[in-house]
């Protein structure tokens, strides 16, 4: 059973060499007698920015625990059930949820697994648009942002797993959407593929406040925050009355020893802006409703989805580290096995 382990806790930017491909010594891959878990074959693994936090030693009690050095990394993935001691699953079922960065996993926490019913779409989609990032975008936009038709929406890290969907949900509702991303290729995707009204490369904007004033002369009603830091500060200066800011993530801060200060929070008062953080797993009860909306939209071509798939477990460490350098174009997925 090949596995990707975390070698040791990480400080600063994660590197490919912080992780290592090993072959586990276990001889028999079998569900233990009497287990109510499942033995799965992993097909696709998801690289997600939150995993960076799990690479740092944390005090117990933080909302997701840290990885254990020397043990396989865990994260979201799509897998095929080989053996099941849980009546909810049977051999041959496809599932998505928490699994290991390895060829085969014994999953005991089956409450964190979802059975996949619709396989008319690529299975890898359940690591992204039909999995955790999809619910994040859907709940973050529809539940946290309280959007209304015609409003102006700004999305940062807009070409990524979450951002590309938030922008499209906003367009479907009839909002005016602008996104920021870190390369020309990504900006072109936003404009030409995902249907954003406008997009810009934040790395080429010496003054983010001026850039936002250019794209939002009347101000921003909704900001979907994925990056934090200087971008948030600039957005705070450009919010409209009664605007909403959904704090989904702050990837620009995850590798810093000390997070940057935010200076313009006072504008929340005069503009009466609501700023709210959220986590996807508080909205998993909406998963059924979410699928009913999103699956048909994918099949009818109303939502476009771009993923960046690398092949083989050995490519996983580089792919995960690449998120923090913006190397992924679309949702970062690792293909472990096609079946
Ligand atoms: P992405 O697919 O967007 O990948 C990460 C992207 O972030 C990179 O491609 C890069 O794009 C951008 N980025 C990296 N470093 C920086 C930086 N210093 N400044 C600005 N942008 C940077 O990831 P996801 O869509 O999966 O996640 C997006 C955000 O949502 C993250 O902050 C993540 O933590 C958060 N999240 C939160 C969840 C929740 O429950 N609250 C659940 C899932 C995700 P570029 O080239 O454009 O810079």
TrEMBL record:
GO annotation (BP), single: response to oxidative stress
Transmembrane segments: none
SUPFAM superfamilies: GroES-like, NAD(P)-binding Rossmann-fold domains
Recorded catalytic activity of this chain's protein: an n-alkanal + NAD(+) = an alk-2-enal + NADH + H(+); an n-alkanal + NADP(+) = an alk-2-enal + NADPH + H(+)
InterPro entries in the cross-refs: ADH-like_C (IPR013149), ADH_N_2 (IPR041694), ER (IPR020843), GroES-like_sf (IPR011032), MDR_fam (IPR045010), NAD(P)-bd_dom_sf (IPR036291)
Alphabetized UniProt keyword annotations: NADP, Oxidoreductase
Domain Enoyl reductase (ER): 15-334
Keyword Metal-binding appears in the UniProt entry: no
EC number(s) reported in the record: 1.3.1.74
GO MF terms held by the record: 2-alkenal reductase [NAD(P)H] activity
Stored Gene3D superfamilies: Medium-chain alcohol dehydrogenases, catalytic domain, NAD(P)-binding Rossmann-like Domain
Top EC class for this record: oxidoreductase
Protein family (similarity comment): Belongs to the NADP-dependent oxidoreductase L4BD family.
Quaternary assembly: Homodimer.
Name the UniProt record assigns to this protein: 2-alkenal reductase [NAD(P)(+)]
Organism, scientific name: Malus baccata (Siberian crab apple)
């Amino acid at each position: 059973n090949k596995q990707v382990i975390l070698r040791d806790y990480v400080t600063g930017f994660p590197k490919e060499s912080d992780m290592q491909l090993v072959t586990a010594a276990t001889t028999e891959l079998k569900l233990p007698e009497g287990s109510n878990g499942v033995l799965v074959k992993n097909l696709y693994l998801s690289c997600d920015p939150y995993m960076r936090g799990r690479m740092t030693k944390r005090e117990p009690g933080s909302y997701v625990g840290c990885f254990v050095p020397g043990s396989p990394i865990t994260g979201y993935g799509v897998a095929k059930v080989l053996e099941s001691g849980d009546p909810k699953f049977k051999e041959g079922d496809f599932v998505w949820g928490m699994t290991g960065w390895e060829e085969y996993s014994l999953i005991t926490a089956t409450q964190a697994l979802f059975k996949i019913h619709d396989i008319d779409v690529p299975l890898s989609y359940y690591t992204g648009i039909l999995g955790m990032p999809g619910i994040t975008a859907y709940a973050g936009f529809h539940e946290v942002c309280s959007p209304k038709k015609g409003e102006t929406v700004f999305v940062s890290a807009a070409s990524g797993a979450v951002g590309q969907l938030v922008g499209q949900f906003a367009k479907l509702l009839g909002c005016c959407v602008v996104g920021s991303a870190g390369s020309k290729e990504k900006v072109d995707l936003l404009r030409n593929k995902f249907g954003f009204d406008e997009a810009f490369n934040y790395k080429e904007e010496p003054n983010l406040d001026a850039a936002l004033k250019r794209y939002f002369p009347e101000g921003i009603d909704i900001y979907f925050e994925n990056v934090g830091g200087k971008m948030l500060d600039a957005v705070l200066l450009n919010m409209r009355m009664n605007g909403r800011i959904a704090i989904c993530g702050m990837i620009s801060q995850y590798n810093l020893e000390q997070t940057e200060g935010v200076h313009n929070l006072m504008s929340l008062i005069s503009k009466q802006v609501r700023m709210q953080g959220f986590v996807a797993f508080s909205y998993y009860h909406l998963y059924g409703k979410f699928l009913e909306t999103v699956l048909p939209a994918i099949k009818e071509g109303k939502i476009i989805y771009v993923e960046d798939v690398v092949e083989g477990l050995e490519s996983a460490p580089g792919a995960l580290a690449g998120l923090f350098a913006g190397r992924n174009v679309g949702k970062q997925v690792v293909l472990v096995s096609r079946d």
